[in-house]
Write a structure and sequence with these properties.
PH-domain like, three-stranded antiparallel β-sheet
Length: about 375
């Protein structure tokens, strides 16, 4: 693809940036206006990239996920779920989205502080009208870009990492915000600011192009998981008790508050109590518990709440009814043992006991089965 084709594919980006260019060249927008406009646009691009990443169909070339990240257990989920007219969103992409944008999200307010400090040092007034026009034009440009991403089905050729716009966001920070800061003391209209806008536009065109990837065999049509599932009805189907799973997760709240990332929520309680008094501390504690509970419930709901287990003569299949996709399958002749795990906490821990299916050196732990004893008996037949 040559430069002309690249620019044509980025027509919405060119038009949006031309509005800013006209504002600087013809209406004398100041450096302060550009700083605010580019800073806001970087935030919009971060959000757009995160949303685009949810729809990317290809898996990343690097599949390893840091298990300390929130929702890292979703990385192995198969299948997606559609909302309204949008294409399927894939839970497996969410940990990568979190891992990839967390630095950008943390960096964005820091850049905002630098922007405010630069504006304060310059002593120039920021016109709300000029800022509004610039921001609206760039937001519309990103909106058109996202619509094109969906309508032209670009997500079918991208992995989650290539859809996140990380290069474009960094380009906005370096070429846009950084370039304006260098010439922040120039008096509008200034040719130097026009140059900065032009360079930033080129950066948007070059770095805004998605990097298409090849599909991995783990998720492409050659995957044998679906093809290996029998077409006949299963002998028995075992479903989970969502109430049991919910009760189990709520019972684990005190333990989760002791480990990251929920520990960060709990640590807020102490300074809140010291600064605001006992009442504020109690409220902060309640908020910490509720936040942790919501996080655990959402995670468990997507991870296992919609699973059901189909028992065939030769196979056991874990099928997710929310994603309408099998998650894993086990050959029954390879099952070396199936038991109901006992624990010292069984007497006080809410929810049904855990079923453990062993296949040589691999183990599957099934929590929340409505009929765990019947499941074990069915597998042992």
């Amino acid at each position: 693809m040559d430069w002309t084709d690249t620019a044509a594919d980025s027509a919405h980006t060119v038009v949006a940036n031309m509005v800013v260019l006209l504002g600087v060249g013809m209406f004398g927008w100041s450096a302060s206006v550009l700083l605010v406009v580019y800073w806001v646009e970087a935030g919009v691009a971060i959000v757009r990239g995160a949303v685009q990443g949810l729809f990317a169909e290809h898996t990343p070339t690097e599949l390893a996920i840091d298990h300390k990240l929130p929702l890292s257990s979703w990385a192995d989920k198969r299948g997606g779920v559609s909302v309204w007219v949008l294409p399927p969103m894939y839970p497996r992409n969410i940990p990568v989205v979190v891992a990839s944008i967390i630095v950008l999200v943390m960096f964005w307010p820091i850049v905002g502080v630098i922007v405010l400090a630069t504006i304060e040092a310059g002593g120039s007034l920021v016109s709300p009208v000029s800022v509004g026009i610039g921001v609206v034009s760039l937001v519309i440009g990103h909106g058109v870009g996202f619509a094109e991403y969906v309508v032209s089905e670009q997500y079918t050729d991208l992995s989650v990492r290539s859809a996140l716009l990380r290069r474009q966001v960094l380009s906005m920070f370096v070429l846009g915000v950084g370039g304006v800061i260098v010439f922040a003391n120039t008096t509008p209209p200034a040719i130097l600011l026009v140059v900065v806008v032009g360079v930033k536009l080129v950066g948007d065109i070059v770095f805004g192009q998605p990097e298409r990837t090849d599909s991995l065999t783990e998720w492409d049509d050659s995957d044998s998981l679906e093809r290996g599932i029998p077409d006949t009805e299963p002998i028995e189907t075992f479903r989970l008790s969502r109430l049991s799973l919910l009760a189990r997760q709520l019972g684990y709240i005190p333990l989760y508050l002791l480990v990251p990332p929920y520990l960060l929520v709990a640590l807020v309680v102490v300074p809140a109590g010291l600064i605001g008094g006992r009442g504020i501390g109690v409220v902060a504690g309640i908020v910490a518990v509720v936040t942790t509970a919501i996080g655990l419930i959402v995670r468990q709901t997507v991870q296992t709440a919609y699973l059901e287990y189909h028992v065939y003569p030769d196979q056991i299949v874990a099928h997710d009814t929310l994603l309408d996709t099998p998650q894993w399958t086990v050959s029954r002749p390879n099952v070396t043992d199936v038991t109901i795990a006992s624990s010292r906490l069984d007497g006080i821990r809410p929810g049904n006991r855990t079923v453990v299916v062993s296949i040589y050196d691999e183990t599957y732990r099934i929590q929340g089965l409505r009929r765990p004893e019947a499941f074990v008996e069915s597998i042992r037949k």
